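Late entry, written up from scratch paper. The run itself happened at the end of the previous shift, but nothing got recorded in the book at the time, so transcribing now.
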Amino acid sequence: MAIVAIGIILLNTIDSIKYLTCEDPNNYIYEINEITETSITITVDTTSSAETFSDYVYHINEDTLYIGVKYTMNPLNDNPTSRYTFTIEIEDEIDKIILKGGTEEKVIFPE
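Output as recorded:
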């Protein structure tokens, strides 16, 4: 029983750590393009012309999808990609979507 409890604590810690380097969800613009039974498509866009989209991370816990977005400072980039659309495949119904970055969280679905 103790091993299971330790495993659950480690999994929750790992999920929390991967969002520490993500952008604060209040620092970028998002749009939910589509939610279907099998996928969710979201567009994100930074408000800074010096930042370039670099990656996103996510995990699903029960019926909640957590998403973190990463931007990098890149003032010398001739063609910055600040706007990015991505699709996350899902197997079960999602009742809530939360943008997560650092220690901040923002519920974006349902609004």
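Confidence is low (pLDDT under 50) at residues 4-12.
(Scratch paper discarded after transcription.)
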